[in-house]
Design brief:
Layout lengths: L1 H11 L6 H4 L5 H9 L4 H20 L4 E5 L5 H7 L4 H9 L8 H13 L8 E6 L2 H9 L5 E4 L9 H7 L4 E4 L8 H8 L9 E7 L5 H9 L2 E5 L5 E5 L3 H13 L12 E11 H6 L2 H4 L13 E4 L5 E4 L1
Parallel strand pairs: 1-2, 1-4, 2-3, 4-5
Antiparallel strand pairs: 5-8, 6-8, 7-8, 9-10
Length: 314
């Protein structure tokens, strides 16, 4: 386990560091910077998470508890719950009328804003993230029903945190694997319904191995399927250095970046883990309808061209 964490740490050093975004008391800078890099994986995950929530509800015949692992400011909960996309949120926070507002004022406005939309699901959303400001914002405006601000890689959950995290029915994530390992998942699975572990849906950048987590899930009775032949764009690379480092890491693992990362875009793969009986009776392709995002127009990005040189292209 220590080896996996160290390897993930090494791979993360290739990525641009956005820690400062999650230290802000509200998401204005988060949307400005990440959406400015064509961060779209939450949009691509939106129909998948909605479909899995509906399938889990049909399976359990009751309201489900969804845990968003690495939830930041509650974006996945917002997109699953309400009929809008990431662009609408980014435009909202980029508006000139939103600049200069106190965070307390923005929270009041956002609370009313989200309440004004019809809900597409009655699922309960729980957020887990190491950022206290992000958790506090998402719970204050009503995107999360409960939030837990902790780092389960390095800390045992408290009694209160354990109670909140217990009995979840579906765990989702759109990029936290690589920052978290099987240690975090072990804490969550240890608090699952006895005999009824949560389904797990993880979007994982291709530079990170999911094998150790899948092995842990298997010991809890979950079969992990990777959606073969399909990748999901996360965002553009922040810089030429980030592109070069990630491509070098992929090639070092024997993963071909041609047509994907070499074209200037992070790509993730989808892993879904469910009990064997569910996998047999409800094939993944009967649950999910997929849009990859590859046809989306992107901003200027770094990509490899002939001869191995890097070019900034429109």
């Amino acid at each position: 386990m220590t080896g996996a964490r160290e390897r993930f740490k090494e791979l993360n050093e290739a990525k641009a560091n956005f820690d400062r975004l999650y230290a802000a008391p509200d998401p204005r800078e988060y949307y400005r910077v990440l959406y400015g890099l064509d961060y779209i994986v939450p949009d691509l995950a939106r129909p998948i998470f909605r479909a899995l929530i509906a399938a889990r509800e049909a399976d359990l015949r009751r309201r489900v508890r969804v845990l968003d692992l690495g939830c930041s400011y509650g974006v996945n909960a917002a997109l699953a719950r309400f009929p809008f996309d990431l662009a609408r949120l980014a435009q909202r926070y980029a508006g000139p009328e939103m600049q200069g507002l106190a965070t307390s004022t923005l929270i009041d406005l956002d609370r009313h804003y989200f309440r004004s939309w019809p809900r597409l699901t009655d699922a309960q959303f729980i957020g887990l993230d190491a950022s206290r400001p992000a958790i506090d914002y998402a719970t204050a405006v009503g995107l999360l029903d409960y939030g837990v601000a902790t780092d389960l890689e390095h800390h045992e959950p408290t009694a209160t945190e354990s109670e909140i995290l217990s009995g979840v029915d579906l765990i989702v994530s759109t990029g936290c694997v690589g920052y978290v390992t099987r240690r975090t998942f072990r804490h969550l699975l240890d608090r699952a319904h006895p005999g009824d572990p949560p389904w797990v849906a993880s979007f994982v950048l291709r530079m990170f191995s999911y094998q150790e987590i899948a092995d842990l899930l298997a010991r809890h009775g979950l079969v992990t399927e990777k959606l073969e032949g399909i990748t999901f764009i996360q965002r553009r690379f922040h810089s030429e250095d980030e592109l070069r480092s990630v491509v070098a890491n992929l090639e070092g693992q024997g993963v071909d970046p041609s047509g994907k990362e070499a074209d200037g875009l992070y790509h993730a793969e989808l892993y879904v883990s469910r009990p064997e009986a569910v996998v047999r009776d409800m094939p993944l392709t009967s649950v999910l309808s997929i849009t990859s995002g590859a046809s989306r127009p992107f901003g200027r990005r770094f990509r490899f061209v002939d001869g191995g040189s890097v070019k900034l292209v429109p």
